[in-house]
Sequence to fold (568 residues):
Amino acid sequence: MNVREQIEEMAEGFTPAERKLASALLSDYPFAGLETIQSFAEKTHTSAPSITRFVSKLGCSGYQEFQRRLIDELKERKHSPVDLRDDAMPVGDGFLRRFLERSSDVVTRVSEGVTEDQFERVLELLSDDKRNVFLIGGRMSDPIAQTLSRHLRQIRRDVYHMPPDPEIWPEYLLRVRSRDIFVIVDFRRYEKRLSDLAELAAEKRGARVLLITDKWLSPVAEHAAEVMAIPIESGTAWDSYCGALALVEALITAVAEQDWEATTKRIGGWEALRPNYGAVDDES
Amino acid sequence: MNVREQIEEMAEGFTPAERKLASALLSDYPFAGLETIQSFAEKTHTSAPSITRFVSKLGCSGYQEFQRRLIDELKERKHSPVDLRDDAMPVGDGFLRRFLERSSDVVTRVSEGVTEDQFERVLELLSDDKRNVFLIGGRMSDPIAQTLSRHLRQIRRDVYHMPPDPEIWPEYLLRVRSRDIFVIVDFRRYEKRLSDLAELAAEKRGARVLLITDKWLSPVAEHAAEVMAIPIESGTAWDSYCGALALVEALITAVAEQDWEATTKRIGGWEALRPNYGAVDDES
DNA sequence: TATTAAATGTAATGAAAATTTCAATGTCAA
DNA sequence: TTGACATTGAAATTTTCATTACATTTAATA
Fold:
């Protein structure tokens, strides 16, 4: 239950000092409760012990837990209302429509976690063809990593997608040179094998690890040179990786544009090598 | 000035540890910065001193002042009647921002190509566990198909992802019963092998083909029972599959919600079977 | 490869914050 | 008026937190 609601409910049983606290808190909710216990005490002309008693009456084990609750409430209000907000939104209330709305929200919010600057740095690394690039993702996120792999392979050389089975990794790891790149995609339900891999790659082989993860940060972060933390919550029980895909596509596009002739030449040559049951039709 | 803006501005002069901190903070802004200095340090795999140095670089006399600034920002935003999120959403016109803008547009436009009605029909088919489901995508679009495969496999039985090599297909095709489902994802640079497969599956084996393609329609359409034509042009030289991913995720979510107990039970059992080097940490 | 400078974490320190104890104060009923 | 009880804050205590100093590691350059 909401702290505010709880206070209103319990208001009967409060002592005078507690009522002071309650009204101070409610009048500047929840920020009054985010100060230190003593400045809150001072402001309300009560004392720290009174506050301790007050919050424990509210069922918190201490002032800190109380503050955590307030913060969590704020956080929730800020993160969830994607859907609640847009009852004022345009038309269409079908499932698909609503879902798409949220997905597109996740996409735009990517920029909250990745600055243009960081984007540039990553771009720089991925474009440097003196470095090998190794990629891998988690069970559910590997498709994202694969998208990057496949496109990157069209653009540059020395791109290797790691197989899912750790047994086979050594074979790849031996090929890793210092300063090579590891791109790891790992979203919640983090997988230990990935952080193990990151550790090996970074510590033993001197590779740079670029991590794409969510705001709870995969343990891979420990070994990562760049952490791109992007939103994956779409408000449903299931996460959305649309943001991740958008980021990856942005990287691909940027790397390709970085050196345009080289890319077209490469893709051209590559097209020529396709067996002719390959493309059927390319133009509208 | 806003802490967020300041961080983006000063990004150049940051050390690696500071960058980690910056991206962790930005991805869960401003709440990541409201924890105690040590839990923030732990979460980002840096150390408390690094944070102290980081915030002092930001012009704060200490961690506490830094927190005060964050809280004051929250407060201000809260009290101004405008959108709660406005402030958190960085504006700007860097490459990434512009790209994301377009991607999110592609996502919302999916509903132009797929009606709620069609969505329902497809949903129905995918939920029907008396039908086998086979999936495959093109060279670049297979990751989309894989996303669907992998999630679907958590939800229901009899899901088979087709290998890319046509040589192996007969083995699968023999297993196809009449009224089974084929999900094929094929975007421009259509591949002949896919339409061959569609033909075999539909005409010879009596399967229903569900096609996810773009507005120029893959030749697979000829054999498809449902054609979902979605936007893939993001305005760059490269296509964006974000719309496709969003659609696929919507399907997954809807199928899962269709029969919720069955799904949780299935996922639960499935979790229990994971070797314990599986998940590492799941909570924030 | 050796040398230097920068970056980073460990551990020690000092500061402050929160909690507990306890005595003082006020309130109410007998 | 007095005694029992509840409320309260001062002071002491304990805990937690942030910072500083320093040693180690890492990266950069010659």
Notes: The CA atoms of residues 164 and 178 of chain B lie 23 Å apart. Chain B has 13 helices and five strands. Residues 81-88 of chain B have pLDDT under 50 and may be disordered. The two ends of chain B are 29 Å apart (CA to CA).
